[in-house]
Amino acid sequence: MLPPTSTSRLPAHVALLMLAVIAFTSFYPFTDWSYSGRPLLEFLFYPLPYYFRLFDNVVNYLIYIPYGFALALMPRSRWLGCLWAIVAAGATSFSVEFVQQFLPTRVASNLDIAYNVAGAATGAMLAISPFTVWAWRHIRYWRAEWFAAGSPADYAVVLIVLWFVTQLNPSVPIFGVVVRPIGLPQPFISPLDDPMLFLFLLEAVGAMLNLIAFLLFATCFLRHRRYTARAVAGLILLALLLKLLAAGALLKPFAFFEWFDQNVMTGLSAGFLLVWGITRFGRKVQTVCALLALIASQSVAAIWPLRADSQDMLGLFRWGYGHLENMGALVEFLSHLWPWIAGVCLIASLIHEWRRRGGASKTK
């Protein structure tokens, strides 16, 4: 995220996105709501530590750091921003814990509020620290050097980072939009005489379209064409590295390459060649192609006839199932959300370019 100007809405939008992530991870799976009958504010006065799980506490702390960071950048005053971040994060955390009382699978905890506020305070202090001010100068220079001017490019940088979060589940193929289920074969109706060919085409084409959409999304916001090759290579290498690290940390040894197979490799190879050809054209063509690839990739996901069983997929992992279900649900949520936000960003970029050219033509 870039340093905001006085009129920038980017920090507020990032804060709203983090709020959605917090709400999703706190209330998932949104079922079995009930009221225990105990006093509603009783959890605030539990003796500390009433409920302590190291992993949960670390997550409660970490997830509020970017939330506090974004909140602190909203006001013009640095210290007012820090105070606003702590108050808003505290109110968010209290609201979440209050609502969690009505979910039998959740535990309302005053300790969670303490960790949440501590994380938000850390993020807020980072946002106003001299080191961050110094770092922003370099980030601002890098952004101005590599990316086109305008607020759509600011959002594009954030969305590129967010896309990598959607790749954190190593059981999902890299750049994949569909997942082959584990276990017994599932019956489905194939429009082709060869059902396996139908599944191969969907899986390969889905990976191809996702690769095209993501890479063109990034390249259409670049300032100069000479950065295209480095940007494409860097993004692909980062995606591969992230999948390798996630697989090594989360998957059992026999499932280490679950995220990569021949179908995916075929689709990615074809997608890379198409990206190489499309990037020979201008920014407008790349933007339109990225938008079309986004729509087409979601169409592939919609017609994919098989459904992966979450319980079967969990058998690939070495972590505790409760945490994995939450992580998998969050990644899936962001994976469904990302194409829509990216599509809006691409449309905003086209409108921004049209207005810029229109304004330039009037001054002549």
From TrEMBL:
Top-level taxon of origin: Bacteria
Annotated Pfam families: VanZ
InterPro entries: VanZ-like
Keyword Membrane attributed: yes
VanZ-like domain boundaries: 15-128
Transmembrane segment boundaries: 12-30, 50-73, 80-101, 113-134, 197-219, 231-251, 263-281, 288-306, 337-354
Keywords assigned: Membrane, Transmembrane, Transmembrane helix
Protein name per its UniProtKB record: VanZ family protein
Source organism per UniProt: Crenobacter cavernae
Lineage, uppermost ranks: Bacteria, Pseudomonadati, Pseudomonadota, Betaproteobacteria, Neisseriales
